[in-house]
Amino acid sequence: MSGDPTGWFEELYLAAEAGEAEVPWNRDEPNPRLVSWVERERIDGGGRRALVVGSGLGMDAEYVARLGFDATAFDIAPTAIRVARERFPDSPVHYVVADLRDPPADWREAFDFVLESITVQALPPHLHAEATKRVTEFVRPGGVLLVLSAAGEQGDEPDGPPWPLTRTEIEAFASGGLEPVQIEELHDPSDTFPRRWRAEFRRPGG
Q1: What φ, ψ does residue 22 adopt, rounded to 5°?
Q2: Do residues 65 and 38 make contact, with C-beta atoms less than 8 angstroms apart?
Q3: 87: nearest Cα among 28, 40, 6
Q4: What is the pLDDT of residues 144-198, one digit of tens each?
Q5: Could you report the per-residue pLDDT of 25-82, keeping only the tens digit for each?
Q6: Cβ atoms of residues 111 and 159 within 8 Å
Q7: Can you give the three-state secondary structure of the chain, one letter per residue?
Q8: Pick from 119, 141, 139: which is nearest to 130 by CA?
Q9: How far apart are CA 21 and CA 150, in angstroms?
Q10: Residue 77: closest CA among 104, 101, 96, 50
């Protein structure tokens, strides 16, 4: 993994398609921490653009599109994008193969809502700062970034992936002009990761 820290994503999706593995983060419903936030904040995407980072097989992206957003969703794994398109053949979501570390230039400050759900934590810790910076650059003035992640403690050395984000790493999304709105630490003993972050950031202006 040290030589190619993202190549395993495509390998996993290919193995899953062949019935030889399971994608541990795949769900048959959108992330409940996204849904509860949307309902609490009464999010309406009408007339606005959204980007879903590391969209996997598409459940979160489909939910975001149902909110009225013009939604784009990307993943580095071509198989994930192909399966998402096949899974939702009539979807309005623009599914794209792209690399978070080298995204399309015209995505910079182009989206009113950006969802980063457990993508940065799937990368080795030495890539977290770079990946975080890329995520923040997608948010346009007046736009919102929502980050969902497992929570880790400073000094932990988990045998990832994933590598849960520390409080310091979550706070690092408040960079490049973004300001923190709310950082929540959520607890659920029944969850695979009983501590989770849900953090909202906003770029002033717009």
Answers
A1: -125, 145
A2: no
A3: 28
A4: 999 999 998 877 777 778 899 999 999 999 998 999 999 999 999 988 889 999 9
A5: 677 899 999 999 999 999 999 989 999 999 999 999 999 999 999 999 999 999 999 9
A6: no
A7: CCCCCCHHHHHHHHHHHCCCCCCCCCCCCCCHHHHHHHHHHCCCCCCCEEEEECCCCCHHHHHHHHCCCEEEEEECCHHHHHHHHHHCCCCCCEEEECCCCCCCHHHCCCEEEEEEECCHHHCCHHHHHHHHHHHHHCEEEEEEEEEEEEECCCCCCCCCCCCCECHHHHHCCCCCCCEEEEEEEEECCCCCCCEEEEEEEECCCC
A8: 119
A9: 22
A10: 96
Q: Which amino acid is at 175?
A: S
Tokens of 83: 């399966």
